[in-house]
């Protein structure tokens, strides 16, 4: 079980060139330069999606109906402040994935407003959607890596998309891989990596464009508990650098352990929104198993 | 730098999906080959038909009783038609000439010796400048006093009309067929590339997820299509060239038939021009095929 060992090892404290140091936002140390880069970096185009002040994520009376009157979300209003770490919990079919997909405009709300970084996504033109997605890091249960590309190339793709020069790609990719604990594994293909390692590649890719919002949909769904722990630690450290983190999960243990803000969905409605564990009051979410 | 990157991406995907790339290339090859075989054939048939059409001529037979004056009047009338541009050429064939020609044409000329007198009338052989003018020429001379009352004018009306219709038909059918072939080729290549994209649907999804713009995703696919189209076209042109040199040219130089004389090499399309057209068509097929196909996958 080498892969578990590896992930445990990584989650612990091993000496690395880059580490995420837990610090208040105001005092960002030099070794966090990878996560918050110098502003001198030039973008290729003006179409950069910049989150404004105020809440990072805002849902105002959002209803999402699928074909055949299936309700994904049924009147959800919620606000997530910049810098928060939030769990979105609920059974399968409760609306978690709908929530996430609305945030990255994979779906459009039937009614109500989805506002990300101060922008109403209902008014966002289709051609601007790529720029929104560059400002949001996404991590999924199934990793969604490009299978015929190495770990480095997968991360590099996200940088190429945003028009970074080759030198910059060559500089940044090893840095970010080291940051997520994948030193020296850049040349491996996804299938040559363990589940936990693949998820780290996916997190590296999500982080490499310095998103202000990181969204993870069941990031530990395919991983064993110890590996999950390592991934959650990584997400926590990312959150401590000021990135807003939204994690959809039904992993009760993880949520109970982290004691963060928990938004519970049931049949498309928010049934609880409080700090604490997965299910403080069992009657609320209807969770049985 | 970007173009280089798109190019590398295209090559990577060709390598990663070798089977589908080969399928797309072969599709382009077949399409271009058919097109390349069809275009010269079409040009040849067209020139052959127009050559036949230009051979339609009008024979005006002269009565044996017509006076020299009447014959000269008819000659002047036809001469005027030539000045007007309706007649390209005309010749007078006397009774003796007619008999001599007949004698040359017959296998056993001795039968003509049995004739008490020369039964063949003299005639004017008129070649219209354009087959379409034939009817006007006939109308202009048909009531002339010098005409032989029984023979009159011999003009292969139906043959001419049929040839004209055939020429028009060949032209339009040819253009229609080329059009259909092109559309079929685009659909075929598009379909093959659709397979390629379908195989990589997840990949395209991931690309969109990390914020790739549609053109960023589209370029490598289009370059891939162009490469497949170009390679297919080049191979097809090589095959066509082999067939031209090995079969058509050999046949054309060896055979001394009326058919090869009818459509001379100059009237069919020149091979270098054909090559340019076909290679261009191949590249275009690839680009358009993949471009159209991608649209569906780049929604949302």
The end-to-end distance of chain B, rounded to whole angstroms, is 28 Å
Tell how many strands the DSSP assignment of chain B holds. Answer: 4
Q: How many DSSP helices of chain B?
A: 10
Biggest sheet, spatial arrangement of strands of chain B: 2-3-1-4
Q: Which geometry of chain A do the CA atoms define?
A: globular
Helix fraction of chain B? over 70%
Features:
heterodimer; A: 289 residues; alpha/beta; Rossmann fold; 2 domains; six-stranded mixed β-sheet; four-stranded antiparallel β-sheet; 9 helices; 31% helix; disordered N terminus; B: 300 residues; alpha+beta; Alpha-Beta Plaits; 10 helices; 71% helix; elongated
How does the SSE layout of this entry go?
The complex is a heterodimer of chains A (289) and B (300).
Chain A: H1 2-11, E1 57-66, E2 70-80, E3 85-89, H2 96-103, E4 111-116, E5 119-120, H3 129-135, E6 136-140, H4 151-161, H5 166-179, H6 195-207, E7 213-217, H7 225-240, E8 244-249, H8 252-258, E9 260-266, E10 269-276, H9 282-285
Parallel strand pairs in A: 3-8, 3-9, 6-7, 7-8
Antiparallel strand pairs in A: 1-2, 1-4, 4-5, 9-10
Chain B: H1 2-16, H2 18-54, E1 58-62, H3 68-84, E2 87-93, H4 95-105, E3 122-128, H5 134-141, E4 153-154, H6 157-199, H7 201-209, H8 214-254, H9 258-262, H10 271-297
Antiparallel strand pairs in B: 1-3, 1-4, 2-3
Helix pairs in contact in B: 1-8, 2-6, 2-8, 2-10, 6-10, 8-10
